[in-house]
Specification:
- It is a single chain.
- The protein has about 600 residues and is α/β, with parallel strands linked by helices.
- The chain contains 20 helices and 24 strands.
- The protein folds into 4 domains: about 25-145, Alpha-Beta Plaits, CATH 3.30.70; about 160-270, Fumarate Reductase Iron-sulfur Protein, Chain B, domain 2; about 280-375 and about 525-585, FAD/NAD(P)-binding domain; about 375-520, FAD/NAD(P)-binding domain.
- The strands form 7 sheets. Strands 9-8-7-10-24 form a 5-stranded parallel sheet, with helices on both faces. A 5-stranded parallel sheet has the order 12-20-13-14-15. Strands 16, 17, 18 and 19 form a 4-stranded antiparallel sheet that branches.
- A hairpin with a 2-residue loop joins strand 22 and strand 23.
């Protein structure tokens, strides 16, 4: 053995003077890197309980649990993530996938406890001493695999729109639709926002994978007007979308539109299974979305169904009230024809009066009322009976049925809902200069935001805080609207400010037509007196129970006549609930 080998072990003693690479835990603390992946923290107020973190975790280390003080609400499941550090590998996928960026990881990495249960905790709820740490791993939205930006919908240019009643929306291409569908994280919060509880993540997933026929069949499990909803739905589901908290919600309505428009003959696509014919029959008054939804699913269950419609065409207010640039007639006819092909009998131009109603009660075992709201609310001001004052619901019906309507060169529309916007945009297509007068602020208007934007793009002017005072005759066959201004009075949290007239100020506008669009009410004069006396009605609408039965046994109601939300998807949901209610009624159950 040489001298080098003899002295080599002695060289190790030089390490005594050096600082150790390891640390004495927990006596010595060393600061970790700024983006070190330590223990989780969560902003409970920002978290919506979507469960994406739990779904993406490769080790099943996250459970979604209910905790005290957190209640479910719009767009929030009420659940919060609980982390099991016996399973966690600190990969950070949960943080990367969190759509609200509420979940992150502190750079705290030392945590010593004797009890194993201390390593299973709810970040943000079980305080472990590092909840307020600012350093640690956070989601980088700029480099995230979550796409927060919606694929924009292509539309005709405003100048082109005004020349025709052709559909404004051009629709997604296949590439655009699949790209938009890929944005969906499948959390399912949107389902709670849909009155009909459609299986939204399932049919979007089918679109993303190119299974369009499967997607449409999923829709038809509880909605026979999927294409209608793909064009004009109020899309409350999108306001519940988890991606909307930090970016654009998934375009659920447009994806529904894309899938349903791919098929011209629904009979070749929908795999509807009919049950054996039963000995019960149902009469449905009103061929709107609610009535026809009830008719479709009752027919599939084997019941004999006859629908009675006063107008010459089926479709209810979607046929008579929605302009064709939003909802083309061929689209409606395609959906109605498929429903009728399932054995539903339709009688149009059938106006039900008290005598006919008595007859229907005798020949049917149950009745469903889907008559809609056909009587317009009036302004209630002096001079309203002027011949140049018309009501939007009548105006739109005449336009849709190709009746002659003259509105002149200048129009003022009173109202702020979708009907007011429709009346204004239709008038622009007839070449009129249009002003909308609304009693609150534009931000308070209940109309769809996209429709308001579309109206303004087409040259409609919106005046805020307008209170009609009276209508007066004007020279050259015109009409004068005298109005006042309102001041907004706060009504407390969660309520819209109340418009209060500013006394002593009057203004006027001269136009050719005043179109009133402040709402509609039910016309129940078709009910015989003995039924009208028993029918419980509240503020102009028929009261129903959770299965849509009225206060009269065997008579059900739904849609606008019983539902204050007054949109197509709510009517569809009512029709579906009524099917279950009618079946229970036939079975002798309450």
């Amino acid at each position: 053995m040489g001298l080098k080998e003899v002295l080599k072990p002695l060289g190790a003693w030089r390490q005594i003077a050096r600082k150790p690479h390891t640390i004495l835990v927990p006596k010595v603390h060393r600061e970790a890197a700024e983006r070190y992946r330590g223990f989780h923290v969560n902003d409970l107020g920002k978290c919506i309980g979507c469960g994406t973190c739990a779904a993406v975790c490769p080790n099943e280390a996250i459970d979604m649990v209910k905790i005290e003080g957190i209640e479910g609400k719009k767009g929030d499941s009420g659940f919060r993530p609980r982390i099991d550090y016996g399973r966690c590998c600190w990969c950070g996928l949960c943080v990367d996938s969190c759509p609200t960026t509420s979940l992150r990881m502190t750079n705290e990495y030392i945590w010593i406890r004797e009890a194993p249960d201390d390593f299973v905790y709810i970040p943000g709820y079980d305080i472990k001493g590092f909840e307020q740490k600012e350093k640690g791993y956070r989601k980088d939205k700029e480099h995230s695999f979550t796409d927060y930006h919606r694929v924009p919908m292509r539309e005709k240019e405003p100048e082109e729109r005004l020349q025709t009643f052709a559909e404004v929306v051009l629709g997604y291409t296949e590439e655009e639709a699949r790209k938009e569908a890929d944005r969906c994280i499948g959390c399912g919060l949107c389902i709670s926002g849909c009155p009909d509880r459609m299986h939204i993540p399932d049919y979007i997933r089918a679109v993303a994978s190119g299974e369009y026929e499967r997607s449409v069949n999923i829709m038809y499990e509880n909605n026979p007007f999927a294409e209608l909803c793909g064009k004009v739905c109020t899309r409350r589901c999108e306001s519940y979308c988890s991606l909307g908290n930090e970016g654009d919600p998934v375009a659920i309505r447009w994806l529904k539109r894309f899938a349903t428009e791919r098929f011209s003959d629904l009979k070749e696509v929908i795999r509807a299974r009919k049950q054996e014919l039963k000995d019960k029959s149902v009469g449905i008054i009103g061929a709107g979305p609610g009535g026809l939804t009830a008719a479709y699913y009752l027919a599939l269950r084997g019941y004999k169904v006859t629908v009675y419609e006063a107008m010459p065409e089926a479709g209810g207010m979607t046929m008579a009230g929605i302009p064709k640039y939003r909802f083309p007639l061929p689209s409606l006819k395609k959906q109605v024809e498929f429903i009728l092909s399932q054995g539903v009998e339709l009688k149009t131009n059938y106006f039900v009066d008290p005598e006919k109603f008595r007859n229907l009660m005798e020949i049917h075992d149950a009745i469903y009322l889907g008559v809609g709201l056909l009587k317009p609310w009036k302004l209630g001001v002096p001079g309203e009976d002027h011949p140049n004052v018309i009501y939007a619901i009548d105006y739109l019906r005449k336009v849709n049925f190709n009746e002659s309507v003259k509105i002149g060169n200048e129009v003022v529309v009173i109202g702020g809902g979708d009907v007011a916007i429709d009346a204004a945009r239709v008038s622009r297509r007839f070449g009129a200069k249009v002003t909308i007068g609304y009693r609150r602020r534009k931000v308070d208007m209940p109309a769809d935001r996209e429709e308001i934007e579309g109206a303004e793009e087409e040259g409609v002017e919106i005046w805020e805080k307008i209170i009609p005072l009276r209508v007066e005759d004007a020279p050259e066959g015109r009409v004068k609207l005298v109005y006042g201004k309102a001041r907004m009075v706060d009504q407390g949290p969660g309520r819209r400010p109340k418009p209060v007239l500013i006394e002593g100020e009057e203004y006027e506008i001269l136009v050719d037509r005043i179109i009133v669009a402040i709402g509609q009410q039910a016309d129940l004069t078709f009910l015989p007196q003995e039924f009208a006396e028993k029918m419980e009605v509240e503020r102009g609408r028929i009261k129903v129970n959770e299965r849509q039965m009225t206060s009269i046994s065997g008579i059900f109601a739904g849609g606008d006549v019983a539902n204050r939300v007054a949109d197509a998807i709510s009517a569809i949901a009512d029709g579906l609930r009524a099917v279950k209610g009618i079946e229970l009624y036939f079975q002798g159950k309450s």
